[in-house]
Input
Amino acid sequence: MSEIEYRAQKALELRCPHGEMGELVGYASTFDTPYEVDGTVETISPRAFERTLKDKPDVFALVGHDPSRVVGRTSNKTLVLSTDERGLRVTLRPVNTQEGRDLVALVRSGTLDSMSFGFIVRDDKLEVRDGKVHRSIEDLELHEVSVVAYPANSAARISARAKRASTDLYSAHVRSLRSLEAKRRMLIPPLGIFIGGTKNGTV
Output
């Protein structure tokens, strides 16, 4: 079974006159911006959300990834998702419940200012560059977006499948480097060998 992964960042603002519910606007994800997660340098491709948004999934807006704290959803248009040159843009008009009112108050006061999203990866690319594994997420299935307290991805984890693939790729890279080094040493004559009637450069 595919695992849900989570990523977050600090990119949320409140648009409303004082005392009104208004709307929350931010980015749950930004494109082609490298960040490190679980020892892997990761980026989100601008194409990653194309298929899932085209399929018009019923995505929920939550607080802290808690399914009991629903504040909006795409099916009733209290949550609108779109992409632009920056990333996945989220426009949330929290429902007028205690949870929604509390959320607006927390964002207005600056207590909460970050967004996150839960997703399953459908296609990714792995490669080793500069001694690190780089992962580009090319296609994903979006499950939910959340307003969260912590914007950093330092506590995030990639799926077990991606972790195994990353570890295997890096191990193969190390083996390849060791093999090349062994071949290089075989091609370089050691000091003391006779070449053209000389030894160590002397007759």
In short: The helical segments are 50-54, 98-108, 160-187.
